[in-house]
Each structure stands twice: as structure tokens, then as C-alpha cells.
What does this fold into?
Amino acid sequence: MKFWKYFGLRLFTWALTIFIGVTFIFFIPRMFPSDPVETMIGQIQARSGQMDPAEKAALRKTLRVQFGLEGSLSEQYLSYLNRGLLHFDFGPSLMNFPADTRSIIGKYLPYTLGLSLTSTLIAWVIGNVIGLLAGFRKDKRSSKILEGIAIAIYPIPYFLVALVLQIVFAFVLKWFDLQSFILTNNGVWQFVRSLVRASILPGVSMLLLGTGWWIISMKSLAATTAAEEFVLYARYRGLSESKIGKDYVFRNSILTQITALAMSLGTVFSGSIMTEIIFGYPGVGKLLQSAILQSDYNMILGVITISIVAISTATLIADLVYPFIDPRIRYS
Amino acid sequence: MRKIIAMFLTALMALSLCAFGAASAESTEVGTPRSETLIVECQSAASSTAGQFNPYMQGTQNGFGIHQLLWSHLWEMDTVKGEQFGDLAESMPVSNEDFTEHIVTLRQGIKWSDGEDFTADDVVYTVNMILTNTGIAQNAYYNTVFASVEKVDDYTVKFVTKESFPRLSQKFGVTIWGNDLRIMPEHIYSKLDDPSQFQNSEPVVTGPYTVKEYDSLGNWILYERREDWQNSDVGVITGVEPQAKYILFKYLGDDTTRQMAMMSNQVDILCEVTPEALEVMTSANDKIACWYPDYPYATFDDPCSKGIAFEMAKAPFSSKYFRWGVALAMNFDEISMNIFEGAGRASVLPILTATTAIQELYYKPIEQWLKDFELVLDDGTSFNPWDPDYKDRMAEKLSASGYDIPTDPIEREAMFGIGCWKYAPDVAEKLFVMAGLEKKDDGWYYEGQPFTFELTYLAETEAQAGRGTLAAYDQLIKFGFNCTISSVNSATWTTNDQTGNFELGGYWPTGGITKDIYSQINGWANDLIVPLGEIGSGQGSRWDNQQATDIIHELATLSPDDPKAYELGIEFLKVATEDLPFIGFHSGTKYVPTNSTYWENYPSSENAYNGPWWWWSCFKFIVPYITPVQ
Amino acid sequence: MRKFWRNSNVRLKAGLIVTAFFVVLGFIVYYFPHANPFSYNTYPKKLPPSGANWLGTTSMGQDIFWLLIEAIHNSLSIGLIVALIGTVVGVFVGLIAGFTGGALDRVLMVITDTFVVIPSLPILILMTALMKGRSTVILMALVLAMFAWAWPSRQIRSMALSMKERDFIQTAWFSGEGTVQVVLTEILPFALTWSLSNFMNATLGAIASESSLAVLGLSPANLISLGNMIQWARERNAILARQWFWIGSPIVATVILFIGLFMLITGYNDYMSLKRGR
It folds into this structure.
């Protein structure tokens, strides 16, 4: 019974979080002194020279109507809440007008999700295992070495790691393409092969940095837990080190890490921007960046709304699963 | 620990397994023979609208080879001569006396890629489609221009304009980059419900290539030469067979990546790079070259000069003395060195860019006037700001640092321009005082307040503009101004420019490619100015000059071929120079690298059969002359 | 003090030395008189390192050494301000939410969650577009701090939730200590260890966020920071042109700074657990 009450409340805060988040994200771009119609005209002028004033005025009028920017802000907002949140329909992408935002995102989202989720999960597992070893058996030589590697790689700015990987493996050794090259129209086998090939460098670059952080945070958690009384007590009781590690230190430290994992999924969207730019990997990060640069409201809203919903849901699930792992917490 | 090592090794093995099967020297990633494939960098980023080849559906990425290879215009641009020529049209339009009726004769013998003849029906249909379909962006504008478009016979079309329209071919043919009027096949488009919603994934075209394959993720498009290339517009006009069986347009990623792709011969033509990148690439791979074989490498004929724009609806930027003060407070030699190591043709006059043609047609004729031009100062003295020695100074400076610089004054003029504004900080101080500023011990004041202003430039676009603005900022700080600098994205800038929400901006409201300059300058008429904060259709700079406006209005009614039009153009340039609404730095300086490992005979300074404008629609007229390396 | 030094471990010492070194560079050497490093053509271009220009000069004739000092000063300032705000606000909100529970907890967590779920980089890109060039170190730091507090507060809250149930807290509770006192005496020291490593991470995160913006070309154009320095070098093709001192010095500085900070924190953790007699 208590669980259901907790569940209901948690569900309510989940919905509320999403609502506040998307409201925020709806109004922020509209407060900015940029305008998709002007951007489009600016782009045309940047490549084909100054536009005739009469042509400019006419084009502006046409685009304003087509982009649906004529209604008042509150009307736009209500229609967005209705269509966007309930049906994931964000209208046409303004920079790719009249192409549909949803179908464009739908085309690129699987790539971002696939790459980021895989590398985040692998990094999380490897990082936590190494971190646990390093924190729990901190005097062992091997754990010190692994930790040392993590510390040395972690602080390097991400784009640099990516660039170095790209220069070494794609330019000098020529093992990979300089830019991701995914064959989508030559059958499944070709597709999978090229996808794996294209994903390795970006994946490894994300993995390298991700692992570092998990090692560091897990290590500090494990070290703190390992120094606690109940662990000492277990030692006095003569339990084996591996049992202590597994049942006491691990179970206690992993909790914080699970929440952290759920939330780090948030970086899936914004964190993939640099990866996608450097490796030319298809995905929504790049989509989002160009949407921001071109003030494509609908696209910004589309990508970030999906991102907000995904992260809130991940944290919701983490919170619900929590008490099953940590018996000390009750639903309250 | 051992487990971890084992895991690591397994991963490494899996990694190396996938590592093979990349593009080899013999074939491209898309499986075509490398020796038959010309690989060109696309102008835009990866396309989110892959498979969309219809230029009348918005969002189509025309720079992805689509307007270079597939579609044709009525008139194309000869970028070397600076003149238009007939593409689908056989000749230039013939207009009646008051320029309201225009007869266009079409070229015969051109066929669509499905074998249908290209005729007047296609042209009439295309224009009428734009006039009636409100989903097409140009719809409103075409309706303000055209009263009707009719077929006279199979190869003759009559355009009737609502008002006198002396510049039909400039407005509806190519002058720079491309034009919105691309002719579509009537026999296909007329069957559609709404041509503005038609992707046209398998386009039927008049150009020499058709689409063979495209990446659904938008990273590349593979074009294949038409079997009946003789029937394409290029085939009919030149009679030369395009040598490349395939052309692959490809998105190459960030700046470092594209350089690496070029150095490892994975691409044959890049759009534009920085001089630093060119230096690295040419020293790593001797097959890579640029427009000139030696210094300055770049071509200077891009028609947009970069420099400093002012928001002239705001004080003190509204004062011409302030603007002249800025011009004289900056050391142009240092600015040149800071942008592209001194490379670039000085193009300091406002609004008109010193491309080769414009330098001859407009800059040189007023050279004497510039030498006599005086700024009258408050203290009764006057000052001539023109500095004709720039080219020699730069030539000596660069020769001293080891570059091979010509000694011939004509060549030097082509390389460095005819002159620039003097560096005269003392005169600049007097001018600023005349503009109402006041110099105190702790800096400049305006209306009793410490004076500060902001320079703005676009973050993610042209290096030349960004570096120019930073160099100007550096100069103005050294002069003693307490100014700031900011970079904004183009979305913010385009709106700020229009609403006047800037002070000084590193921007390029400039141009100049044809002898007739009307379409370059008509945005500067003062009747187009709207109050700050509103968006108008003229220049965001809000230059209010009655003399200039009168010239623009008079030009509007004259034929571009009228000698009076040219005289007015010269007059306009003098008026603008006196008032200095824009300080130019250099003409558009473009480093356009080519790689001759697989292909050769690209246009270059020594073989200038065309300009190096791969991203313009005229690329289809370059392609036949690019030949495979034997 | 001497006792502290004797008791501390190698990491703590090394971390202290490295961090102190950067603080000296950024906040003491910074004030030594020198030419404005941003100004172009102060020196000849592309000089190799020499007695006059310790790290050589850039393609714009700027002295790399002083550029670096200024960058360290600004980046450290940004990082420290962000980390301070983020950690203090985060710990405060997290503890309150975790220990009071009820309606206050829920309200705080909804706000926190909102900030956690909104992806920060896009918003930062949008914010910098609004700030334009008027942004200073402080303003930049405040914008970055907007997103720096939410994660720690959520982490601290879950830590607090888990601790609330533990014996030593329960004992304190039963012995009549008030919530505030329990938090101050029992929880805060415990949370502090974690907060410190979070502080390090927040510093790093802030500097990294600023670098990301810089690499996207969106950090204020005249703000000399480590990220912008890397970006300027990249724009002038310093990587492929092998101008290693120019591109390398901000990168090496960033890496060493972070390793130093990290050693400081782990060393401190070990030192504290030793001191607590465990």
C-alpha cells in the first residue's frame, strides 16, 4: 500500500518535472534576439549576395506565414503542449521546411542512442569494477595502476582525445574512415558492418573519458564505505575479502552510482555533440547544434523535449528500483 | 587483473577485425572506381533532407551538387569575364522600350534526362508554378514582378512584367552562386498535386549528371554522367564530354578532418580553407595546389569584401567623422598581416568590392579623385586619407620575409589593390572630437559618459570576417578606445543586423561582380530605413544619405547597358566614399585547394577557363574540362 | 601545520604542490607587470621558445607564456566560483531535502530534477548567445553555476536518505539532538568527503564546459581562458601545423591542473580516514 502511495507521488513529480522543463525550454529560445526567418534570409544573402529589397520583403512575408510564427506566444505554447508533449509532434523543422521534425529526429535518434547508451553502459560497468577494486583493495598494485591510467586520461579535454584517436587511427594508420561512413542502402550485412566500423572510434573516445569518471567516483565511494564500521565488523567476523567486497562495499556503493547512471544518461544528448561533430557520426547532437545556430525552434524543442522526457523517466525508474536494492530505504 | 587484460585484448582483436574493408586506392567507399570518380566537398553541412532534389521544396540543400550538376538556369555567369551568357536561354532577353515585355529565345536541342525535349512549355510551367503555388518561398516576390508568362512558340517565351524591369537576366539568371529560377520538367511536375511538397528523389534533369545513389543520413550524394550527356545543356553548349563518370559530393566534417581527407587523397576538391590549412596541406602533399601556384595562392575575386559595418541610426556612429576616425585609427598593414598574413587585395571603398572587374571598372577610374580627396578638419586644415603606397609597402615587407612578390606595378595592383586608408591616429583623434567625443586623461568620453562600444562578428562563418574584426578590435584598443568584442551565431546576428541591435559589426553587406551595380546598392536607399528595433527590407546599417538614394532611384529606371548607368555608379561610389558607411578591408579572399592525384586541369590562375567556384551553379561548366591523370 | 605535513600522504603532498603552483601562477604571477597578452603583434610571430618569450609566440605575435598565465587565472576563477556555488548550494539543498522530507523535500526535488533533466550544453549555447561579448568571468561563472548545483544536491540527498536510516544517526536522534545539530555534527563531515571530490569535479566540469563552448566558438571572443586558447590555436591550424607550444601549453596546463586537483582530493580523503582513526 505504502508503495502505491509513493509510486503515485513520484509519478506526479515526474510529470511536474517534465512540465517545468519543457516550459522553460519553450520560452528561452523565444526570448532570444534571433529569428528563424531572418536566419534563412541571412543564409541566402551570405551565399548569393544582397537580396533585392522588394524580394526580401516578399520572402519574409511568405516564410512568416509558412513557419507558423504568426500566432501569439501563448497560442504557440498551448499548441506545443498539446501536440508536442502528447503526440511528439513538433511541426515542421524550420531550417528543413517543410520536412517534419519528428521524422528527422526519428532518423538520427537511433544512432545517438545506440552509440551513447552502449558506451555509457560499458564505461559504467568497467569503471565501477575498477573503481571498486581500487577503493576496496587500495593497496594492491594492479588497482593502483588502473586507477593511475584513469586519472591520467580523465582530465584530458574530450575533443582532444577524439582528435588524437582520429589522427592516429584514421589518418596515420588508416584503420578507419576519417568520417563515419554508414552504408544504409546496401542490405543489412553491409549496414551492420559499416555501422560497427563507424562506431568504434567515437565509441572508444566516449568510453575512455566515461570510464575515468566512474572509476574516480566509485573509488571514492568504495573507500568511504570500506572504512565504515560495519565493514570492519565484517572483517572481525572473519568474512572473506571477496564476500565483504561483494555484499557490503559493492551493494552499498553501487546505489549512488545507479542514480548517477540514470542521470548521466542526460549527457547522451548534449554530450554527443562534440563526438558527432568530430567523427561526423550521424545523430541528434549535431542536429541540435545546427538547430540552435539557426534558431530552428521546432527542432530545438523536439530534441530537448525528448531528452527531458527520457532523463526524467530514467531517474523515475532508478528511484522506484532503489528500495529493492537498498533495504534500508523505505518508500516514504 | 588478468581478466581485465584478457578483456582488453579481445576488444582490441575485435577492433582490428573491423578495421579492414575501407576505401582503397582503387575504389571509393561507395564502390565506384576511384579513377572514374571526382570527389568534391559539399558546401553545406550534412543534409537532414537526404533524397530531396526538388529545389522548389524548401530545405533542399542546393550546395550539395544539386544546383551544380542537376538543374539549369536561363542564364549562367562567366565568372572570368564577369558577364552572363545564355544557358537554357540561347541569348540575353530582348525587351521593349519601357522594359515591360521581354522576349526570351530558348536553346534548341536540349533534352531532359528521360529523353523528352526541353521546350518553352517547361519555362512557362515553372514560372507559372511559382506564381500560383503559395508553398514556394519565391511566390510572393514573383507576383510583384510578373504580370504574365506566355509561350510564343516552342522555343520562345514572352515575360510581361508589371512595371518597368530592366534587369530581367540579372534578377532571374545567375550572377553570384546560383538563382532561384531553375527550370523544372513540365511533363513531370504538371502531374503533381503540390510541387512544393514533392521530394523528387529520382530527378529528371537538364544538367549533365543524374543521381545514382544517396546516403539516407545525408553525408553524400553520388552523381553519374548521363549516357546522353550530349543532350544536356552543357553538352549542347560546349560539346565536351565530362570526363568523370561519377561525381561524389561529400560532407567532410570539421576543419582538421577535411584537411586530413585532402592530404590522404580521399577528396579532390575542397570548398574553402584557411591559409594555415593550405600551408600544411601543400607541404604534406605536393599534389595539392590552389588558384596561384605560389604566394598569394588565394583568389581575390569573391564578390563580398569583408570589413566593418556601422549602425548609423545610433550616435556617434551616425557621424561621418566618427567613421572616418575609425578608418584612420587603424593600421591597415597590421590588419592585413593579422587576417591572412598580408594576402588579400585591398578593397577599402564602401559597398563595392574590388574584384578584378570592379577594380578596373570602378576603383581605377576614381583613383585621381581619391588622390585629391580631402577631409576638412575643425582646425581649418585638411587631410588626404588616401594611401596609394600600400601595395609597394606590402610587397617589400613580404619579399623581405621570403615570398616571391612581383615587381610589376600592374601585377602588384592586382595582388594588393590600388591603395588603402592612411594610418593617422592624430587625425583620427581630431575627427573623433568633431564627432562629439572628448578625450580625457582616462580615455574617451561621449556626452559626459565614458565612451565604449562593441564590435560584433559571426562565430561560425567566414574566417576572413572574424579575423578582420578581431584585428580591428586590436587596433582600436591600441588606439585607446575602451571597446569590447563579441561573437554571435548567425541566427542572432541576422536579426540584430536587421533590427539595428549592434554598434560596429564585422559583416559583408558588399558586392560587385557585374558592371551594373544596381542590385548591389539598392538596399542602401534611405526610404527603406525603418526605426531601430523594427525589421525592414533595406540594409540594417541604416545609412541615411539623400544623394545616394537619388542615384539609386534614378538607376532603377535605366537599362544596365545605358552609359548613364555606369556614370551614376561612379558617382555613387564617390558619394559613399565621402560618407563612409562601411570600411572595407579586402575583397573576398578564397583559398580553394585542388588535389591532382586522380584528376587534373582544374581552373587556376595559369589556366583560368573559369573561376574556382565549385559551390556555384557554374561548376557544371568546369566539370567537362577536369581530366583524369593518366 | 608541520604535524599535518608529516601525517599526510604522498598524493596529498603532490596534489597540494601542483595546485598551489597553479594558484601561484594564476593569482600571483598574474599580477607581475607584463604587456597585455591579447594584443596582436606585440612580438614577432611564430617565435620558438626563448629567454624573452618562454613559450614562444603565436601566429598573431602574442606571448604564449603570458597568454597562458591569464588563461589559468580566468579559468581557475571560473572553475572555483562555479564549484563553490554549485557545491554549497547543492549540499545545502540536498541535506535539507534529505532530512526534512515531506512537502519541502518534494518541492526542492522537483526543482532540482528540472535542472538535472534539462541538458545543460544546449542551454549554455543559448545563454551565451544572449550574453554576447558583455560577459565577464563572473557572468560566465554564474551561467555555468546554474547547472552545477543540481547534480550534487541530488547525490547528497540520496546519501542523506541512506544515512538517515543508519544506526549512528538514529542513535544521535534518540539521544535528543536536533535535526540541525545532527546534520552539522554527524552528516556534514561525512558529506564533506564526497563534496570535496564533487568540488574537484565541478571545477573540472566548469572549465570543461567553458572549453566546449569555446571549441564551438561561443565563449566570449575576448575572454582569455584555457578553452579559448585551445580554440584560437585550433582556428589557426596549430595542430596540423605542429605549433606544439601554442596548442600544447593550454592542454598540458589543463591536464596537470586536473591531475593535481584530483590527487589533492584523493590524498585528502585518505588523510581524513586515517585521521578519523579508521
Remarks:
- The CA atoms of residues 19 and 303 of chain A lie 15 Å apart.
- The radius of gyration of chain A is 24 Å.
- The mean pLDDT of chain A is 78.
- Chain A touches chain C through 66 residues (CB under 8 Å).
